[in-house]
Amino acid sequence: MSIEIGEGTPVQISEERQLSETRREMVLNMGPQHPSTHGVLRVRLTLDGEVVTACDPIIGYLHRGVEKLGETHRYSQFTPWTDRTDYVAAPSNNLGYILTVEKLCGIEAPERAQYWRMIMGELARVASHLVWLGTHALDIGALSISLYCFREREFIMDIFEKFCGARLTTNMMEMGGFARPIPDGLPEMVRDFCAIFPSRQKDYEDILSANPIWLSRTRGVGIVEPAAAISYGLTGACLRGSGINYDVRKAQPYLFYDRIDFEVPLGTHGDVYDRYLVRMEEMRQSINIILQCLDQVPSDGPLALTQSNYVIPQHDTVLTTAEDMQRHFIWVIKGFSPPKGEVYMAIEHSKGELGHYIVSDGSPIPYRMRLRTPDFVNLQVLPYMADGAMLADVVALIGTIDIVLGSVDR
Amino acid sequence: MGLMPQPATHAATFDPPAQESWVATRLDFLVNAARAYSLWPMPFGTACCAIEFMATAASRFDIARFGMERMSFSPRQADVLICAGRVPFKLAPVLRRIWMQMPQPKWCISMGACASSGGMFDNYAVVQGIDTIIPVDVYVPGCPPRPEGLMYGIMMLQEKVKRERLSDGDLRHEMEPDPASGLYIPPQAIDELSEPFGNSIHQTRSGL
Amino acid sequence: MSDAFQPVLPGAAAPQQPAPATPTNIAYRDGAANPSADALRAHFAAAIGRTEVIWGETTVYVDGAHLADIVRWLHDDPAQRYDYLSDITAVEYRDPELPLQVVWHLRSLPFRRFLRLKVEIPRGAPLDVPSVWSIYRSADWFERECYDMFGITFEEHPNLRRILLADDWDEGHPLRKDYPLRGYREYIQPGFEAPAPRVHSRLRRP
Q1: Are A369 and A343 in contact (CB under 8 A)?
Q2: Helix (H, G, I), strand (E, B) or coil at B64
Q3: Do A344 and C114 make contact, defined as CB atoms within 8 angstroms?
Q4: Closest by Cα among C146, C117, C3 to A230
Q5: Which of A155, A156, A82 is nearest to A122 (CA)?
Q6: Residue C37: pLDDT over 90
Q7: What gap in Å lies between CA B38 and CA B29, rounded to an integer?
Q8: At B138, phi and psi to the nearest 5?
Q9: N or C: fewer beta carbons within 10 Å in chain A?
Q10: Which residues pair with A359 in a beta bridge?
Q11: Cis bond before residue A265 (omega within 30° of 0)
């Protein structure tokens, strides 16, 4: 059966075929423009009635060649593109990239900057989980949760805006620390947020966690066994929901996560409900981490390295001394040249393990800029989870993997 | 250098009657007000701008004040296509098909730098401006635009809707310019006209 | 597809060793190598090339023909237990003399180790490497992406087709160094006589 649309291009719509006495088959196309696919994800489902027999996610509808752009631009120019990869948690992307370049150059930012990076990274994690919860609940049917989550997210956007000027695509992390001072009143703003958020989160849990509709739509759906989770390379809440205790912050600590006391929540069954509980607990732990960081951060001290070739010179010395003006000019126009070599650095992004693999040949432009994004890998498990699930469960499964298509397609 | 002489143009004429009747102008006002204050958006949200669009629809910025809270994900029931985010070439036919599926009257808001001009992604994968695929009414700059910016764009669109006249017969025609009409300028002429600054249509000019 | 594999929790195989603290002093070159590098050399003498340690990460160059056996041994051997595949990617150098390298990032959760394997494909040789899909399911999309971006074919991959670009993208493989940033084709306003369109072929006007 074909239908003429618009200019006469025929479209094949799959007919239901009878394969045998009891089995039928129909191919249904979901997306790329669809309210529940969290972006432009296309899923080709093969259905037997309401039951999915095969599922083929087709990605690439948001591919924009970020890795190719990284090969033609300098290290300092690449940070804005990392924002747009996973746009709901932009500071985390910046952080992963900057930590990788710092590892490649062999420098480390001062203590105060490291603490503020942790605070901003954890705020980004909370922001990302709020978008996840809002859209996941919206897809399953709890429409009001999305409005509540975005209301909380606005507080975090205000904090980002006070810190760096932008709400969403923040571009806030820089080589060697932060070039601009921490604005007045920012620690108090973060503390205020941490004071109100737990009660709001308790509201969400009161609505959802014991709700019979929520339980029936998420319990027992999309079970991933631990062995399959490791084989499919899952990270983040997808892996921890199946009980594997792998969190990059604990396994290969970066920044000062080894000085902070926090727990890693684990699930037991590996279904959608467990991943929901894991992410809710991660939000609580993030608030805990932020408060500890605010207590431990030195209230004054340098925010950026000053004498390193890899770090942009400080603003005041640039405008007053000749050497720093020259260094600034060369740093901006020509770029800094890291040593030859390659490095892979992973951080615990809200979606999982975000890894950057940079190959440097000693020039200011990277040879190879590879972003190993967690969603790209996590999305591979969708056919495994959807096998035998109902069509309505596919929506819950896409939400539980927590994908952001900018990060999947890069 | 100098500009090429302009090709003979065939002007699209709009001849309203010298004085429209009072009833016709009131009818215009009613119809346009009804359309402008209940534009149902079709959020073709791809990327970061889609998150800002969702924030605009959320409680702090509240797009429901404009009558636009009913997101229509089916293009058949939508009035305005808000293309929020970058459109790679793989997605371009999808956008075109969605636009063709929307019934008239329809408008388009190109939200963000990537939808308006390709944004910061000037490479092999991204369409350098959706106005090469679909006709756009309002461009909202920003990367991503603040919710206030998007609302300003929506208000501009509302002004545009309110200025429409039912007596304008050509308003709802989607024309592809006939190459013989002179409205069409071939790409080589566009390049000549825009030397030496180049233009976003001619992509491979820098050899990168 | 799940066999009797029992997942071992991180660090479980080396419980006396606490989780590594944030490393502050790593040598740029010639630091302590991953013990798996020596174990590989002992087990697969001929197929192992040189070993490099840069910023504390060990890279082992291996022979492409034996890659599948090497990776399977790393996965199954109880003293190695590389149960997690982080990434598969490729690096092409601008210098036309240097070979194209295909890179595997492996992680051992029980032993808290990280290893990078590289296979070098000289210029002019066919871009063919074995697939590790039978060992790690996550290799599926990694290998499809390498095929899409570089043109490297992976033998015995079940479903090797383009993933990030359209299926009928016929301009080549974008991450190759000879592929220009902005692509080859002019891009066109739909409906007009002009160079070949880059829009998906179904929309071409007849």
Answers
A1: no
A2: helix
A3: yes
A4: C3
A5: A156
A6: no
A7: 14
A8: -130, 135
A9: N
A10: A342, A368
A11: no
The token pair at A402 is 């927590």
DSSP string of A279-306? Answer: HHHHHHHHHHHHHHHHHHS-SSS-SB-S
Give the whole-angstrom CA distance, residue B91 versus residue B84.
13
C53: enclosing H helix or E strand: strand C48-54
Verify whether the Cβ–Cβ distance B51 to A87 is below 8 Å. yes
- The C-alpha angle with vertex C56 and arms to C53 and C58, in degrees rounded to 5, equals 40
Q: Report how far apart, in Å, the C-alpha atoms of B35 and of each of A358, B32, B139, B202 are.
A: 52, 5, 20, 38
The SS3 assignment for C137 reads: coil
**ipTM score:** 0.86
Q: Cα angle at C29 between C27 and C32, to 5 degrees?
A: 70
Nearest beta carbon to residue A227 from set C7, C19, C149: C7
C84 and C108 Cβ atoms separated by less than 8 Å: yes
Strands A42-48 and A51-58: antiparallel
pTM of the model: 0.86
Does C149 sit within 8 Å of A67, measured CB to CB? yes
Q: Which amino acid is at B91?
A: L
Question: What are the chain A neighbours of B53 within 8 Å (beta carbons)?
Answer: none
CB C60 within 8 A of CB C117: yes
Burial class (CB in 10 A: 0-12, 13-18, 19+), C191: middle
Give the up-direction half-sphere exposure of residue A40: CA atoms within 13 A in the CB hemisphere: 30
* Cβ-count burial B82-110 (b if 16+ within 10 Å, e if not): bbbbbbbbbbbbbbbbbbeebeeebbbbb
Instruction: Report the DSSP pairing between strands A352-360 and A368-372.
Output: antiparallel
CB atoms < 10 A from the CB of C35, how many? Answer: 14
Contact A173, A160 (CB under 8 A): no
d(CA B176, CA B187): 16
For residue B101, what is the nearest residue in chain A, using CA coordinates? A6
Tens digits of residue pLDDT in A380-410: 999 999 988 898 889 899 989 988 988 998 8
**For B65-90, how does the pLDDT look when each residue is reduced to its tens digit (9 = 90+)?**
888 888 888 889 999 999 998 988 88
Q: Do C183 and B124 touch (CB under 8 A)?
A: yes
Nearest in space to A153 (alpha carbons), one of A283, A297, A294: A283
On the question of pLDDT at A116 being above 90, the answer is yes
Q: Tokens in use for A352?
A: 């999982």
Which residue in this structure is represented by tokens 């120019």?
A: A77
Q: Which two tokens stand for residue A56?
A: 């083929």
